Amino acid sequence: MWKLRCSSPGDRSSPWGQDVFSLNGHAGRHIWEHNSVNVSTEDTAVIERLRQNFELNRHNQKHSSDALVRLQYEVLREARGRAMKTAPPPRSAYDPSSRTTETPLSLDVVNQALRAGIDYYQGLQDDDGHWPGDYGGPMFLMPGLIIALYVMNKLDHVLSEPHKVEIRRYLRNHQNEDGGFGLHIEGHSTMFGTVLSYVAMRLLGISPDTSNPVDNDNSMVDALSWIRARGGAVSVPSWGKFYLCVLGVYEWDGLNPVPPECWLLPYTLNPLHPGRFWCHCRMVYLPMSYLYGTRATAQPTEITEHLRKELYIDDYKCIDWIKTRNCCAEEDLYYPHPWIQDLIWSGLSKVEQVIVKTSPGTWLRGIACKLAMEHIHYEDENTRYIDIGPVNKVLNMLCCWFENPEGMAHFKHLSRLHDYMWVAEDGMKMQGYNGSQLWDCAFAVQAIVATGLAAEYGDCLRAAHRYLDQTQVQADCPGELMKWHRHISKGAWPFSTRDHGWPISDCSSEGLKAVIELEKLGPALIGPPIPVDRLEDCVNVILSYQNVGTGGWATYENTRSYPWVEIVNPAETFGDIMIDYSYVECSSASLQALANFRVQYPHSQYKYRIEKSLTAGRNFLLSIQRTDGSWYGSWAICFTYGTWFGIKGLVATGSTYETCSCLRKAVRFLLSKQMACGGWGESYLSSQKKKYIQLEGNEPHVVNTAWALLGLISSGQATRDASPLHRAARSLMRMQQSDGDWPQQSIMGVFNKNCMITYANYRNIFPLWALGDYATSVLGMKHEDDKHGPERHH
To answer: Which DSSP letter does residue 456 get?
Structure first.
């Protein structure tokens, strides 16, 4: 039976577990452990039913409900003092057949739904104060890890048989009906997803033999048929080509160059220096450049020899690998290479072939690889070997192993692999980060406070405040930041844990907003406040993130180069990866945080800088609003999310519906997408196609509905026509389940426009927040009007 352990140092008895270091006692760390001792048959039966239900419905409901972790916390409610005290109201209390859905709801009834929702959700909070949850979704992450462990001959050391069973379950559960695998769990089949998933299952011991008892549903046969029907693995995108090269089942000649010498180029006046790239792009292509530069390749095995035969139509030794460099299956081609990029790679490969054969070229390659490894070790040490994300985590580990198979660096990496693993009823997956702990915690705090019921949930909010306190980054990275291409980080908040430590503009802003909201409640409820100087450190970081040219905020760093650099984006499957662009979400969150801080601390040393920043940031938001009034959301689905942030940013900088035409346009956009049922439902295809696309079946989505309702309330819709708000609130309450939870529907997160990702906690956080705002800002205002009478308006 699987159990999640949080804030745990892990297995200290393992050869590498003794070297795990933490800045704050591992606060927020996730490790799933398997234990078959003292497990009751009843518990086993419950879990098996959850797994079977998912498998039966996997082609209709592709997203797991994160049922295992919720079940684990559910059985501990009574012992932890988090028992359910309130049940949701019956539907007849808010949706009677005799009245229109456009009438106001009863405040008591909405508060009952809120108490039921908070009662349920606080039971999922860990003792360390954060809310654990699934952050999976991409299908290429786990195969990358399995390939790396196989290359290092560490597969059996890291993954026990129960691990392998759950990984196989996950991969097969997310195989599409046509036999292929998508880029993410809800996506259409792609060569990238199918080839890597097929290879991963082969390395995990499943063969394409139709008589294989482990593969009784012929998933391997179907996957291989899908690959070969489309010309074989020669048309896998560049990232897939790279993984196959390292495994030894694709030739390096078939890969466009990833020269480590780029790191030797001057940074000044060079818009193409990798230090100017978006940090996720930079940190992926950094280890790629080392592995490419050293032609790091696994030793051949019986399985890799079989894969050379299975994955290709032509005989492996007869393939013209140079001609395959730019081959990409049409199912994968989201960002086609411009012709100039193909010309650059062709010329660079020809030059490289000549230079690296010379003594000076060999010497230069050695210097470049040495510098790349210095950057890799710096990243590893400054993230406690977690690294910025799962792709560079795995590739950095490979680099350390190829550099020194007996060295301690790769052992330290092994100790942090389980930080990325997550188990649900659909199996074991590799997450898109080591979790979303701080992000979810900051949102959850604001949601609960928004309900006006915070005084009833002091233990929950006190624990959340403690997690926020422990997770704030309290020092910059060591050394010369410019040398390592790092931004200041003292005072920031990361996305997940302090040990991860990468600072982000919107995480810092949401963390600051949450702390301010909590500390308004007073120390008697939430505990000792975080010192003001630490909050000012956060303000300093947020201000430093603002881009001078646009007035907007990017993610981890300032924008360091130009949009035209995207011409050399080599990843066919992702868009906008080359530089750190300014986004509506990051900009709005930063504006809101600065505005809130200014109100709470009007005499701060930063007050004049904040005023200037708010003006520039507001102008940026106005400049990127679309003609239909919406904003494109880059980190969740999509226009409902972006428009919520856009409205909040305008309101935070002084806009009103009466004075701001852009705010009026945004409101009209949201109202135009409201469905007859009162809700909103937006498909992930909106992110890919950059236009609003309704969910299939015209179903409302609890998270989209909450975002839209939050945006409308913030705009002052209640003072104009509150009927859309009443309809939206009813839609949310209809979707609430009998235990106070809300259903897990389709996927709601996205990155780089084309890959979706899970935020399992959103289904609880945002309906609570939206209904909370509805109760306090719509129904609460109405009650005040009723209490004071007409004279209130005179």
So the answer is: G
HEC readout, 252-300: HHHCCCCCHHHHHCCCCCCCCCHHHCCHHHHHHHHHHHHHHHHCCCCCC
Structure tokens at 432: 């898109």
pLDDT at 789 over 80: no
Section 46-55 average pLDDT? 96
What are the tokens at 631? 């904003």
Where do the H-state alpha helices sit in 258-407? 279-294, 302-310, 339-355, 359-382, 390-403
Q: What's the average model confidence in pLDDT over 669-674? A: 98
**Can you tell me the distance from the alpha carbon of 402 to that of 406, in angstroms, rounded to the nearest whole number?**
10
The token pair at 494 is: 């990361």
Instruction: Read off the tokens for 241.
Output: 């080509």
What per-residue confidence (pLDDT) applies to 290? 98
DSSP sequence for 473-524:
--SPPSS-TTTTT----TT---SS-TTT----HHHHHHHHHHHHHHHHT-HH
Q: What is the pLDDT of residue 788?
A: 46
Q: Tokens 């490979």 appear where?
A: 398
Would you mind telling me the total number of residues written for the chain in this entry? Answer: 794
Residues 6+ apart with CB under 8 A from 454: 448, 461, 521, 525
**In the numeric block, which tokens belong to residue 295?**
């032609």
The first and second tokens of residue 507, run together, are: 């995480």
Beta bridge mates, 631: none
CB 342 within 8 A of CB 336: no
Q: Would you state the pLDDT for residue 792? A: 30
The pLDDT tens digits for 23-39 are 999 999 999 999 888 78
The mean of the pLDDT values for the chain is: 94
Angle at 74 between CA 71 and CA 80, to 5 degrees: 140
- Amino acid (1-letter code) at residue 231: G
Contact 441, 467 (CB under 8 A): yes
C-beta of residue 371 within 8 angstroms of C-beta of residue 273:
no
Q: 501: phi > 0 → left, psi -120 to 50 → alpha, else beta; which?
A: left
CA distances from 409 to 14, 263, 629 (A): 15, 22, 51
* Angstrom distance (rounded) from CA 167 to CA 83: 33
CA 192 → CA 280, 316, 341, 429, 435, distances in Å?
19, 19, 21, 17, 24
Question: Whole-angstrom Cα distance, residue 84 to residue 78?
Answer: 9
Judge whether residue 793 has pLDDT over 60. Answer: no
- pLDDT digits 0-9 by tens, 515-569: 999 999 999 999 999 999 999 999 999 999 999 999 999 999 999 999 999 999 9
CA dist., res. 223 & res. 191, Å (int): 10
- pLDDT attached to residue 14: 62
Given this model, what pLDDT does residue 794 score? Answer: 25
Which residues have a catalytic role annotated? Answer: 506
Chain centroid to CA 268: 32
Which pair of tokens denotes residue 665?
């346009």
Give the sign of the dihedral formed by CA 648, CA 653, CA 658, CA 660.
negative
Task: Evaluate if pTM is beyond 0.90.
Answer: yes
Which residue type is seen at 545?
Y
pLDDT band at 10 (very low <50, low <70, confident <90, very high): confident
- Type of residue found at 685: L
324, 633, 703 from 752: Cα distances, Å = 25, 11, 20
Compute and round to an integer the Cα radius of gyration of the chain: 26
Distance from C-alpha of 47 to C-alpha of 162, rounded to nearest angstrom = 14
